[in-house]
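FORM 7B: Structural annotation worksheet

SECTION A. Query
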Amino acid sequence: MALSPENRYSRFVTWLKILLPLAALALLSTLFLFAKRSTTDDSLPYAEIQQLARDPRVTQPAYSGVSSRGDLLQLKAETARPVADRPGVTMIDKISLRIDSPDGSDVELTGGAGEIDSAARIVTLSGGATLSASSGYTVQTPGLRVEMDAGVLTSTGAVEVTAPFGTLSAGGMTLTTGTQDAAGNATGPSQQMVFNRGVRLIYQPK
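SECTION B. Predicted structure
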């Protein structure tokens, strides 16, 4: 027996009254299911935030500038952090420093750690330092003190040196970079390296 249009419409409305609430319940259960599966991966790293608040630091800092003598200075590090009780002093890890002098010579320094004293304009490398000079010298030493404005680099301990003519060891070393006048012309002696306190030389002629 065929249903009249009015009966078909009535039955259709009756089914909707049943199916729509069921669909709504299914949707709500799906939302709760996904909510329960959420992890803490997106949660705030509270431990890291607290650590940064106690120990603020900058990763991969880079500094560049020109000294009063005309040396171009380029310094990079893995991390840098200020010293709370020493204003103007910054501790640095895995430091590298390049100094290009007006006379064309250059020096590259690396160290495991160090510090920058902005007021005194002094960089100190520690934790084992290496100096490579364009003159062909490579120096290994426990640490180096760099007076940026004076253009003077001084070892803080004994040095082991590989030179163009052989090898040498000494109790200490001082390197002075080249200088320039107000017009930018190189003046005075170029890069000079002086070894002291018990120098032992092994000459290897080529």
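SECTION C. Observations
The chain has two domains: 1-36, 57-203. Confidence is low (pLDDT under 50) at residues 25-44.

SECTION D. Sign-off
Analyst initials: ____
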